Amino acid sequence: MGITHPVILTCGEPAGIGPELAPKALASGVPFVFLGDPGHLPDATPWREVATPDETVPEGVLAVLRHDFPAPATPGRPDPRNAAAVVEVIARAVSLARSGAAGGICTLPINKEALKRGAGFAFPGHTEYLAHLAGDVPVVMMLASTTVEPPCRVVPVTIHIALRDVPGALTPGALEQAIRITRDALQRDFGIRAPRLAIAGLNPHAGENGVMGDEETRWMAPLLARLRAEGIDLAGPLPADTMFHAPARARYDVAICAYHDQALIPVKTLDFAGGVNVTLGLPFVRTSPDHGTAFDIAGKGIADAASVIAALRMAHEMAARR
Ligand SMILES: NC(=O)c1ccc[n+]([C@@H]2O[C@H](COP(=O)([O-])OP(=O)(O)OC[C@H]3O[C@@H](n4cnc5c(N)ncnc54)[C@H](O)[C@@H]3O)[C@@H](O)[C@H]2O)c1
Ligand SMILES: N[C@H](C(=O)O)[C@H](O)COP(=O)(O)O
């Protein structure tokens, strides 16, 4: 694996747990720079401003690329005046990664509602915004455990949409695209030479041969047969309820799921502390912890940094592999 530039850690929503996790993330051992307002960091944080991601700081000190916000942060209470700056920080990190000045980006959580209300943010999450910044490229959201064996990696084909809209959005084209992006990314970024993909059905019992839903028999099985003939290692469509226990996970490298909660419940149940969200298909590396802004505990100093540490390590490894 090669040498890489530091990862940019974006501040996310300053009223959430992001800023207090940044100094704790120094335990990752990964070279990274915090991009945000140093005034939002916990008072005792040892930090030093840097002009570029490569500028070094003493060990145990947080390197900060300064991005001043208009308002202070009040834990648990997002200030609409800060919403636009949260979005600017993400865009600035992407520019640094795309210019080659940073190895990749790791995003601390945003609060979708706060950004929508405060800045009219038009995207349901980072994933869709990053795809847009990259030129409206097709991307895939993957969440991956880092502390359980066999690993639990999941991809929701449909992401941030209402459950009632899932059957219409889960098209053969969307599933095929998710399969191809995931297969290519597992090879390139995770060093899995011949990825094994397991495809979840949409309906209970994967439709049980059409008696409780027919998406599986009508188009999923024929699509998978066509892709198998190309040499892609695919199992399914499988009943989703029985594909996440350990012996089942041992049979595949990633589960492609029909919708958000079908995919994310297993990984966040098995490894909430170590789960990492990674966007596949982007021209730059992006990871994130698997949790959100946690307003209920923000500012109390009790937030667990394990997921952001795992996310920084994964970004660093992916960047080094590229
Ligand atoms: N990558 C992201 O930007 C991202 C990811 C997930 C959720 N979100 C957003 O976060 C907001 C809140 O979402 P939510 O309430 O569903 O999920 P959440 O992950 O913020 O919180 C769920 C529960 O887990 C706890 N928790 C979360 N992270 C923790 C940590 N590091 N240590 C200890 N406990 C922790 C919280 O206190 C809460 O009880 C929403 O706006 C959501 O869209 C953003
Ligand atoms: N769907 C993700 C989750 O629940 O963990 C989360 O909202 C993050 O999405 P982005 O990475 O697109 O912000």
UniProtKB/TrEMBL annotation:
Q: Which domain of life is it from?
A: Bacteria
Listed A to Z, the keywords are:
Cobalt, Cytoplasm, Magnesium, Metal-binding, NAD, NADP, Oxidoreductase, Pyridoxine biosynthesis, Zinc
Q: Please cite one Gene Ontology biological process associated with this protein.
A: pyridoxine biosynthetic process
Q: In which pathway does it act?
A: Cofactor biosynthesis; pyridoxine 5'-phosphate biosynthesis; pyridoxine 5'-phosphate from D-erythrose 4-phosphate: step 4/5
According to the record, how does the cofactor bind? Binds 1 divalent metal cation per subunit. Can use ions such as Zn(2+), Mg(2+) or Co(2+).
Q: Does the keyword NADP apply?
A: yes
In terms of Gene3D superfamilies, this protein maps to: Isopropylmalate Dehydrogenase
Enzyme Commission numbers on file: 1.1.1.262
Q: What InterPro entries does its record include?
A: PdxA, PdxA_fam
Residues binding a divalent metal cation: H160, H205, H260
Coiled coil located at which positions? Answer: none
The record, for PANTHER family, names:
4-HYDROXYTHREONINE-4-PHOSPHATE DEHYDROGENASE, D-THREONATE 4-PHOSPHATE DEHYDROGENASE
What's the protein here called? 4-hydroxythreonine-4-phosphate dehydrogenase
Record organism:
Paracoccus halophilus
Q: Which gene encodes it?
A: pdxA
